[in-house]
């Protein structure tokens, strides 16, 4: 069973449908944390959750949950093209809109439209784009939402501004989360880790240098607060290759030895 951020109509739901096998059952959860935690508790086999958007960057809730709250692994990824649409209850005109609601990510991805066309309109955040669509459908017509085209069909809404994102090439990277790491090795693998280092000059450089000296290509680095103490951070890093490759295994082991917090998040194909 595959968990995803619900309800039906979210981009996570779309990703789950497109990625999963026809025979696999899907189960919705109200938050990203709930979907990941369901894997940890054994309620479902795996979850598909957003981790990075090409416009808004990383999904911090996913990163923080994987780093601090669970012992799970990334076993795969799926890239979904995102089409944002501002939609309303049928018959609603632009001047009737008093509130625009959506998940924080789509709000950020449509900042130009909101700044130019809806200056002064109240913005409200929702747990998901589908929840925002539900609220719009149940409103008196004063609420609009930003959501996927499938939400318009599911909740009988009218799209007022189609494809209204700031960038046409808007994509979200989803990852598959499971209890056990992926054991398969392919020619197109990446490895994700998270670690923390002492706050002293050169600490981060020394950790990255260990990868560079081993000829390992780092494709991403992201920092997040450690939460329990101001000024301390963890670093999420993606590299090309699989931990089962000797060079990568020994390089990452050196990184681990030079950190006070280290977590292997998984090797998986892309």
Provide a descriptive summary of the structure in words.
This protein has helices at 11-19, 32-40, 60-69, 104-109, 111-117, 129-138, 149-154, 203-213, 246-257; strands at 2-5, 26-29, 46-53, 57-58, 73-81, 85-89, 99-102, 122-125, 143-147, 157-161, 171-178, 189-196, 218-225, 233-240, 261-269. It is α/β, with parallel strands linked by helices and 270 residues long. Strands 1, 2, 3, 4, 5 and 11 form a six-stranded mixed sheet that branches. The protein has a five-stranded mixed sheet with strand order 8-7-9-6-10. The protein has a four-stranded antiparallel sheet with strand order 13-14-12-15, covered by helices on one side. The model has no long low-confidence stretch (mean pLDDT 93).
| Total helical elements | 9
Structural class: alpha/beta
- Tell me the β content: 25-35%
Question: How many strands, which pairing sense, and closed or not: the largest β-sheet?
Answer: 6 strands, mixed
Quote the distance from N terminus to C terminus: 22 Å
Principal-axes geometry comes out as: elongated
Helix and strand arrangement:
Layout: E1 2-5, H1 11-19, E2 26-29, H2 32-40, E3 46-53, E4 57-58, H3 60-69, E5 73-81, E6 85-89, E7 99-102, H4 104-109, H5 111-117, E8 122-125, H6 129-138, E9 143-147, H7 149-154, E10 157-161, E11 171-178, E12 189-196, H8 203-213, E13 218-225, E14 233-240, H9 246-257, E15 261-269
Parallel strand pairs: 1-2, 1-3, 7-8, 7-9
Antiparallel strand pairs: 3-4, 3-11, 5-11, 6-9, 6-10, 12-14, 12-15, 13-14
Helix pairs in contact: 2-3, 8-9
């Amino acid at each position: 069973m595959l968990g995803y951020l619900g309800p039906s109509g979210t981009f996570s739901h779309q990703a789950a449908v497109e990625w999963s096998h026809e025979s696999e059952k899907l189960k919705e959860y109200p938050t990203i944390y709930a979907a990941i935690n369901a894997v940890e508790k054994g309620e479902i086999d795996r979850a598909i959750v957003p981790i990075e958007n090409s416009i808004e960057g990383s999904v911090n809730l996913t990163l923080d949950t994987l780093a601090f709250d669970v012992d799970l692994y990334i076993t795969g990824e799926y890239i979904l093209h995102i089409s944002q649409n501002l939609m309303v209850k049928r018959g609603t005109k632009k001047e009737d809109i008093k509130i625009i609601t959506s998940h924080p990510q789509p709000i950020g991805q449509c900042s130009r439209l909101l700044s130019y066309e809806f200056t002064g309109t109240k913005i409200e955040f929702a747990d998901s784009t589908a929840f925002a669509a539900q609220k719009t459908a149940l409103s008196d017509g004063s609420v609009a939402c930003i959501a996927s085209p499938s939400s318009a069909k599911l909740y009988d809404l009218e799209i007022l501004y189609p494809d209204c994102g700031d960038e046409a090439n808007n994509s979200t990277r989803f990852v598959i989360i499971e209890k056990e790491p992926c054991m398969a090795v392919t020619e197109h693998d990446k490895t994700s880790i998270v670690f923390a280092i002492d706050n002293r000059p050169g600490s981060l450089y020394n950790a990255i240098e260990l990868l560079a000296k081993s000829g390992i290509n780092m494709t991403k680095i992201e920092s997040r607060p450690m939460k329990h103490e101001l000024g301390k951070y963890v670093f999420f890093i993606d590299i090309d290759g699989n931990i089962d490759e000797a060079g990568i295994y020994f390089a990452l082991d050196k990184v681990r030895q030079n950190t006070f917090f280290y977590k292997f998040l998984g090797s998986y194909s892309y």
